Amino acid sequence: MHFVATRVLVLLTALLTAACAGTIRPPVRPAAPPADAILILPGLGYTAAGARAMRALAAPLRDEGFDLYVPDYIARSGLAGSRHKLRRFIQDQRLERYERVHVFAFLAGAWTFNPIATDLPLPNLATVVYDRSPYQERAPRIAVDRLRLLARLRHGRIVADLAREPYVPLPRSGVRVGLVVETVPTSFVRRHAATADSYGPFSFDCEGFGQPFDDCLFIPLDHSELYTRFREVWPEVRTFIRDGRFSAAADRTPPTPVRLSESREGSK
């Protein structure tokens, strides 16, 4: 029994690790900032490895004319506390001084950012690209249903809030919106395939994410990989920022959804 509990705790920690890897912001300098800032809002899968990958991007992005900001905003008290921390970060970093601000929101980032978007001091908000996943968006509910106590001990209320609160679409007009959709389940979701399947069929229909958008693409990555391999996705995000569309080479064909428990059995 002790072995099982320890194994579950290790899995939960590894696969639903809170955003505790520290804040990333550009260096203080006397010169005027670039015209553009990119604000990346990580979620519960943001580990030290993801933070290293983001930090490695800061200098190349600066060379391309973007100041990179990655806040440590997720609060154990839940989504309300996370929204308070994000609002303070945006105010403290004076993001309104840029000509344009672009947001890339991982899952918890979207649930945090969208409900307060109209109240934020961001009149220069130009672009929001959302990470979405039919698989990973079930992870908080799986954690609450199967690992409630461990999830609460590890993360506080934030997991339960994400499992309970419905998605609120971006309520601002005049902002370009793109969707980057993961097509691979994480090992956490695969390990709980039967539970994930029990919530209903998966859908990769971009219209079904409840977020009006200008363009949508699919990537063969799981949620954890998107953090550590964000460099591979950045060219498409940059193209969307500049053109309001992803590139002609972007994959816009949704995969055929399958029951995860059946796909696991077929791989044995």
SSE inventory with pairings:
Layout: H1 2-15, E1 36-41, H2 48-63, E2 66-69, H3 79-92, E3 100-105, H4 107-113, E4 125-132, H5 139-155, H6 158-164, E5 176-182, H7 187-191, H8 193-198, E6 215-219, H9 223-228, H10 230-243, H11 260-267
Parallel strand pairs: 1-2, 1-3, 3-4, 4-5, 5-6
Helix pairs in contact: 1-5, 5-6
Descriptive account of the structure:
The chain has 11 helices and 6 strands. α1 (2-15) crosses α5 (139-155). Helices cover 43% and strands 13% of the residues. It has one domain (2-26, 33-267): Alpha/Beta hydrolase fold, catalytic domain (Rossmann fold), CATH 3.40.50.1820. The protein is α/β, with parallel strands linked by helices and 268 residues long.
Summarize the structure.
This protein is α/β, with parallel strands linked by helices and 268 residues long. It has helices at 2-15, 48-63, 79-92, 107-113, 139-155, 158-164, 187-191, 193-198, 223-228, 230-243, 260-267, and strands spanning 36-41, 66-69, 100-105, 125-132, 176-182, 215-219.
